């Protein structure tokens, strides 16, 4: 099933935002798009070809953001034991899915959890 236009637009905005962060690079392990900083993933973007429901997976350390993300329709702790470390998968196809701006805030929080201090300082000076 092809992703909805709304979900795809959000996904594209989030991907563009993530890749615009200092030192960010896109890689495709497991055939999925991920954004990495310092060789570490800070957002799993999945695939946009419709083979799997569109969604983003971010690492949220802050209790408030973590709980907020989990309250999104269809959101769940990430699989493979990543949920225990604060990773949350947020689907974009669900009715009432978070706005792109909020998703970008979560991507930035995930980035700040993983990026080296030097790159966080560069982001803060923008």
Describe, in plain words, how this protein is organized in 3D.
There is one protein chain. The chain has 126 residues and is an alpha+beta fold. Helices cover 37% and strands 22% of the residues. The protein contains 4 helices and 6 strands, in the order H-E-E-E-E-H-E-E-H-H. It has a 6-stranded antiparallel β-sheet with strand order 1-2-3-4-6-5, with helices on one face. Helix 1 packs parallel to helix 3. The longest helix is centred in the first third of the chain and has 15 residues, at 5-19. It is globular and about 40 Å long. The termini are far apart. The model has no long low-confidence stretch (mean pLDDT 95).
Briefly summarize what is shown.
The protein has 126 residues and is an alpha+beta fold. It has helices spanning 5-19, 63-70, 100-114, 117-124, and strands spanning 24-27, 33-37, 40-46, 55-59, 76-77, 87-91. The model has no long low-confidence stretch (mean pLDDT 95).
First-residue to last-residue Cα separation? 39 Å
Characterize the biggest β-sheet.
6 strands, antiparallel
Tally of extended strands?
6
- Major sheet strand order: 1-2-3-4-6-5
Number of helices: 4
Mean pLDDT: 95
Structural features:
126 residues, alpha+beta, six-stranded antiparallel sheet, globular
